[in-house]
Design the sequence.
């Protein structure tokens, strides 16, 4: 993967695909600017190199229509404050006016384009649209790890029409952290996988068996595994059609000598509700019609101990319904164990990133990925289309 540092960008028009899909409140104020902060090192570098910087991103799901709710104008202002430099804003991402503004950019100047998804052609990876974006620049840089698993115009379309393409610092860091922690890790490598469904992470589970020494399973997906081992999971969320697959993964782990850990006890509830009645039970004692919504304390302790000797930890998926206070404690115990460990620890983005934040460990682990889907894509052993497009 070519790095932006390998390209002479001085006086060149550099199109940088960033991920400024930031959360906003009802008054459109930005509530979390981490995604903007994550791009400052690259932008400062390009300013120092006297490049002409064109930033582009999507935000939300405007469905191909201009919608002030999804405008990047606020992002431009916040970026300008953070970087302490003017940031020009274009009210579209293509068109004559945009081309004119780009042609007038001076060295070291920054222009932010309006939301790429105001055009359906972005998601459709339309060639004409990709070419129009490509025509704005001399060099294309992808710094948006979180969308690099998508085949979209600003991710895989533009590089087809630009002479020089490269990865930005964030994309490099994300891909490197992943390979360092999964494909070339210091051993033992422990993966902790949880979340809602086996189906969403099946390919990742199968691929991880090639690399890990221990595989720890929690969340609703543990229910399907437990049932595949003959446990009556009563009213818990399970995927009937994946029982055989789950049993296959358990056998495969045995054959490979991977220590696969499943819950011994559970926190179960009489309904899926924050005010539900709850009970701590052993796996074979779930009351009729009740459902498991978190791993139990014995399991959490066992999982925490299993992490102790790890040199590398990969965590993807919460251990329970962490959004509700009554079902966060399994996730909290694991999060604390990861934070206390001296291992290199990498946490998947999306829901797991949120869980790490909620458990106050986001700044105590080695790395929290900025991408949920893209991180999972890597865990499945697949190359990211956005990275392939740069090759
Ligand atoms: P994922 O995106 O696959 O990592 O799934 C995350 C979601 O799984 C979170 O919203 C959790 O609330 C949910 N989850 C975790 N454990 C359970 C469980 N035992 N039952 C139902 N949902 C769960």
Sequence:
């Amino acid at each position: 993967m070519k790095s932006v540092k390998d390209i002479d960008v001085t006086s060149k028009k550099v199109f940088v695909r960033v991920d400024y899909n930031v959360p906003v409140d009802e008054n459109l104020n930005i509530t979390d600017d981490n995604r903007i902060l994550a791009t400052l090192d690259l932008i400062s570098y390009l300013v120092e190199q006297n490049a002409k910087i064109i930033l582009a991103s999507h935000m939300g799901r405007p469905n191909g229509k201009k919608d002030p709710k999804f405008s990047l104008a606020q992002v431009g202002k916040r970026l300008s404050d953070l970087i302490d430099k003017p940031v020009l804003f274009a009210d579209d991402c293509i068109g004559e006016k945009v081309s004119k503004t780009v042609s007038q950019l001076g060295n070291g100047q920054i222009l932010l384009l309006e939301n790429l998804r105001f055009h359906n052609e972005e998601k459709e990876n339309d060639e004409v649209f990709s070419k129009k974006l490509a025509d704005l620049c001399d060099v294309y840089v992808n710094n948006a790890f979180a969308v690099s698993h998508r085949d979209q115009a600003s991710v895989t379309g533009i590089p087809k029409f630009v002479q020089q393409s490269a990865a930005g610092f964030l994309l490099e860091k994300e891909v490197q952290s992943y390979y360092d922690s999964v494909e070339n890790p210091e051993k033992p490598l422990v993966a902790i996988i949880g979340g809602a469904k086996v189906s969403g992470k099946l390919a990742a589970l199968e691929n991880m068996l090639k690399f890990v020494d221990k595989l720890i399973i929690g969340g609703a997906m543990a229910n399907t595994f437990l049932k595949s081992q003959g446990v009556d999971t009563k009213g818990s969320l399970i995927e009937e059609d994946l029982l055989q697959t789950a049993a296959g993964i358990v056998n495969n782990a045995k054959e490979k000598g991977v220590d696969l850990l499943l819950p011994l006890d559970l926190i179960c509830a009489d309904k899926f509700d924050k005010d539900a009645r709850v009970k701590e039970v052993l796996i074979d004692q779930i009351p009729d019609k009740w459902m498991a919504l978190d791993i139990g304390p014995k399991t959490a302790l066992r999982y925490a101990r299993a992490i102790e000797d790890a040199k590398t930890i990969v965590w993807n998926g919460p251990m329970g319904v962490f959004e509700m206070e009554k079902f966060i404690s399994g996730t909290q115990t694991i999060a604390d164990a990861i934070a206390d460990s001296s291992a290199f620890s990498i946490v998947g983005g999306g829901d797991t990133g949120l869980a790490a934040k909620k458990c106050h460990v986001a700044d105590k682990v080695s790395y929290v990925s900025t991408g949920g889907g893209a991180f999972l894509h890597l865990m499945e052993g697949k190359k990211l289309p956005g990275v392939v497009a740069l090759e």
